[in-house]
Design brief:
Blueprint (H helix, E strand, L loop, with lengths): L3 E5 L3 H13 L4 E6 L11 H6 L13 H6 L4 E4 L2 E6 L4 E5 L4 E5 L2 E4 L3 E3 L12 E2 L4 H11 L9 E5 L3 H12 L3 E5 L10 H14 L2 E4 L4 E5 L6 E4 L3 E3 L2 E4 L3 E3 L2 H5 L23 E3 L6 E2 L6 E2 L4 H14 L14 E5 L2 E7 L3 H6 L4 E9 L10 E9 L5 E8 L3 H13 L4 H5 L15 H14 L1
Parallel strand pairs: 1-2, 1-7, 2-3, 7-18, 9-16, 10-11, 10-16, 11-12
Antiparallel strand pairs: 4-5, 5-6, 8-17, 13-14, 14-15, 19-20, 21-22, 22-25, 23-24, 24-25
The structure holds flavin-adenine dinucleotide (FAD).
Flavin-adenine dinucleotide binds next to α1, β2, α2, β4 and α8.
């Protein structure tokens, strides 16, 4: 009898695993249970759908459900929620639209993703308070913006200045709304560091967004519908709120099954994505991954991590053990005309906790040769260990060319390069793309001199 690979969750990690496993072993029975209606969607596109740059919600679907079933031979069942895992009996309990069924497995992947955190703010149940996490939540926001002018929201409060909050600020400005961003820390984009945060805040203000920094939201006022965001010192009138204060790994069914949960709150896994239960794997936003710099488990819920880990698990379950690969927390975000990026460890305290002695420099360079028209400034903060000179991380911001440079530093981090090796990389050069000494080389040169004392 054919073996059965069961996947819980039909998005990035789950469908990558299912597709890879079926491709590697067409005889394998691959069953995917997805509790919602949508599969293989790119939540990353939702802010641009709300903005109106992406016309139809269906456009964010990478592979339609029918193709998985008809062309790839995957038994994909939507509106099927897995409510329990029995690791002894090797079976899962599934609530289908009309019954509760048991499905046995030889190997199982938990790819349940993460959920938007909704703090128990006073007034959280008022109407017109949203989160943005999946296609239905994106549709609800877009529908609100498509109401007749008299009922359409004019002012929106975004709670949380993380990357989703920043992307949503741009989306709502694009739709002509007054936008307020409430961030309890002193700067937006905390994982990107202060330099990037300050540049993005200026960009927000230049584009008519009001950031409320160091401002803790206490609740929402209104009769039936939200009318104001209440902070420690103020009440700011709004017609609509989006809460974007982060996500929690969906680890409840794993926890209930006795599977180990890591300190981050996500499911603990080994280098192959296997959990503490034999033949049970976890990948994507619900799972931890090893950080390439610290070697410690971490939880950075991003799309490539999910796709990559899912694909590796799909290969592993066909008998070819494949590590899911470490992460560097590499992230980029567009804030109006700015590009911001970060990779590795840039936080001093975190670097020290991992046993490093971090030293950093910040430089400002040009995105193109000085004489070539149209260039702009690019700021880079580069961090290395004082003793080994190993590059630990970087943050950067500018109007163009940030993503290429973030990826250069990411590659250096994976190769465990030191600042001198980075300084002498043969990076590409022509006037429209950068100065002769690429900004990354300049940052490494300056940091190397600082380390040499
Ligand atoms: C607005 C937004 C913008 C983003 N932008 C970026 C970006 O620019 N770059 C980036 O790298 N990442 C971005 N992300 C993050 C990225 O979308 C996620 O990292 C990625 O979707 C994770 O994939 P996943 O398969 O692990 O989880 P998910 O995409 O969350 O999928 C999990 C699936 O499991 C299903 N499920 C959960 N529990 C059960 C159950 N018990 N039974 C059955 N099914 C279940 C869910 O319905 C869901 O479909 C963004 C996310 C959002 C919300």
């Amino acid at each position: 009898m054919a073996e059965t690979f069961v996947v819980v969750g039909g998005d990035a990690a789950g469908m990558s695993a299912a597709s890879k496993a079926k491709r590697e072993n067409p005889d394998l029975d691959v069953v995917v249970f997805e509790k919602g209606e949508w599969v293989s969607y790119g939540a990353c596109g939702l802010p641009y759908y709300v903005k109106g740059e992406i016309e139809e919600l269906e456009e964010i679907v990478a592979v339609p459900k029918e193709r998985f079933i008809e062309e790839r031979g995957i038994d994909l069942r939507t509106n099927h929620e897995v409510t329990g895992i029995d690791t002894e009996a090797k079976s899962v309990t599934v609530e289908t639209p009309d019954a509760v069924i048991e499905q046995s497995y030889d190997s199982l992947l938990i790819a349940t993703g993460a959920s938007a955190i909704v703090p128990p703010f006073d007034g959280i149940d008022l109407e017109e308070i949203y989160t943005i996490h999946d296609p239905p939540s994106g549709r609800a926001l877009r529908e609100a913006l498509e109401r007749p002018e008299s009922e359409r929201p004019q002012t929106v409060g975004i709670v949380g200045g993380g990357y989703i909050g920043i992307e949503m600020a741009e989306a709502f400005r694009g739709q002509g709304l007054d936008v307020h961003v409430f961030e309890m820390l002193d700067h937006v984009l905390d994982p990107f560091g202060e330099m990037v945060g300050e540049a993005v805040e200026e960009e927000l203000r230049d584009n008519g967004v009001t950031p409320h920094l160091g401002t803790r939201v206490e609740g929402f006022d209104g009769e039936e519908q939200v009318e104001a965001v209440r902070t420690e010192s103020d009440a700011v009138h709004v017609d609509m709120v989006v809460v974007g204060v982060g996500v929690n790994a969906n680890a409840t069914i794993a926890d209930a099954a006795g599977i180990d949960i890591g300190d981050t709150g996500a499911i603990a896994v080994d280098e192959y994505g296997e959990t503490s239960a034999q033949d049970v794997y976890a990948a994507g936003d619900c799972a931890e991954a090893e950080h390439v710099v610290t070697g410690e488990p971490d939880h950075v819920p991003l799309a490539l991590t999910a796709n990559r880990a899912g694909r590796a698990v799909g290969q592993t379950v066909t008998g070819d053990p494949t590590p899911t690969g470490p992460i560097a927390g590499t992230a980029v975000v567009k804030a109006f005309d700015l590009e911001a990026g970060r990779t590795g460890i840039i936080d001093e305290e975190r670097a020290r906790a991992a046993g490093f002695d971090p030293v950093s420099v910040s430089i400002t360079s040009k995105s193109r040769a000085g004489y070539y028209p149209g260039g702009s400034a690019i700021e880079i903060e580069l961090v290395a260990d004082a003793d080994s000179k190993r590059v630990l991380g970087a943050a950067m911001v500018g109007e163009e060319g940030v993503t290429k440079r973030v990826d250069t530093v990411t590659t250096a981090i994976y190769a465990e390069m030191d600042t001198r090796q980075v300084e002498y990389l043969d990076l590409s050069y022509a006037p429209p793309f950068g100065p002769t000494w690429d900004p990354v080389l300049t940052a490494a040169k300056v940091l190397n001199s600082k380390l040499d004392g």
